[in-house]
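Pipeline run #58 for the internal structure catalog. This entry was flagged by the ingest filter as a single-chain record with no existing model, so it goes straight to prediction. Upstream metadata was stripped on purpose; only the residue string is passed forward. Reviewer on rotation: M.T. Logging verbosity set to normal.
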Amino acid sequence: MSDDGARAAERRMREAGQSEEAIRSFLAAREQVVSGQATLIASAELEPVAGVPRLDELPDGDRARALGRVALIKLNGGLATTMGLRSPKSLLQAREGHTFLGLIAGQVLALRRAHGIELPLILMDSEATRADTLAALAAHPGLAAGLEPDFLQSMVPKLDADTLAPVHWPLEPALEWCPPGHGDVYGALRRSGMLAALLERGFRHAMISNSDNLGATLDPRIAAFVAARELPFLMEVIEGTEAERKGGHLARRCADGQLALRETAQTPSEDEASFRDFRRWRYYNTNNLWIDLRALAALLDARDGVLPLPVIVNRKTVDPRDPGSTPVLQLEGAMGAAIESFEGSELLEVPRTRFVPVKTTDDLLILRSDVYRVGEGMLVEPVPERSGALPFVELDRSVYRMLEEFEDRFPAGVPSLREAERLVVRGDVSFGAGVVVRGVAEIDGAQTPRIGDGAVVGSGA
């Protein structure tokens, strides 16, 4: 059965135009699952990390010189399916009339002007995002830097959970495929020719981050630090809080002392309580990575273009909107897991302002609120009046999960959260213009279906 499934997967990927390196990478991941090779990491195999340097402690370096050899790579393969859309998430309105991509483009152009550098912006697109994204980039002709604006990640078949053969879904064949996770960025850089092009142009490092995290800006201090230390791989991490109970944390393997990333899907059930212990596993991945391009090229050359990463097995249904559709396995790799492949990799603790990804409409409400502003250099930053942690927001998933439903309930814009600590909405509540949340507000739609114009709600009202 496994051999038939492997041959079917290989055939379908080749027919879909996937590269031989991408096929080998997927088959290697599938073999881990078929053979029963451990994809889980027990807490007993790990020890906490200590002695991580902090961004505010970094020494000054030659920032302009370091920035001049850095390329900015943004992961842009995702659709906003979590919010009910099937369009690139980076083209959603973030705030003040700007999309995520528009803000990133503005930041790049501002850095070029400020430091007199070339700084290419390169996107890792998917087949689903490429056309719309490139059309949007046409509105920023000044971004051209003599390199292709993007490269494509691969796509891999979803596997029938029972047979481990590629699933068939004639109702919508596109749903038979999925991205292989952002760990594909390394192989995709090589097989697209982008890695070779960057090295030929004299670029030494790349910062890689998610396009939905507007805090992941190109910081000259980090660029200078990476260059001065000649680091092959640097991961930005944040200190954990209860909010990271599902996030990937960093640890050292007891066997060899190598840094390793452990995700939720890689944790045995008996270690779930340990995984959530953010005080023990103190540092959490931001997916803001700095890579030495020469070190990456050498590693991929030595491994025939395939960077082996721990396999993350995600159990879903072939149609994510239909829980009754065929159960499937999606095999993915996390790009942060490559930290164990680079000898001499390091961590850097950064403030939470560098890790504000938008995964849900809860996150989007905060980003669009008056907690943030678009400042100099098109940087999205918390307003000076806001001190401490960002407000906690939890909107009823049965009502606000889809973007259209979310926006229907805030027709005049989201409420002010500048003085808010916590906003929890249960049930269906619509908001008028100029609503202000102060302190802690918990609103029940059964009792209060609408918050009127100019209302002030919460414990500080």
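catalog note: The longest strand covers residues 416-426.
catalog note: The chain has a mean pLDDT of 92.
status: ready for reviewer M.T.
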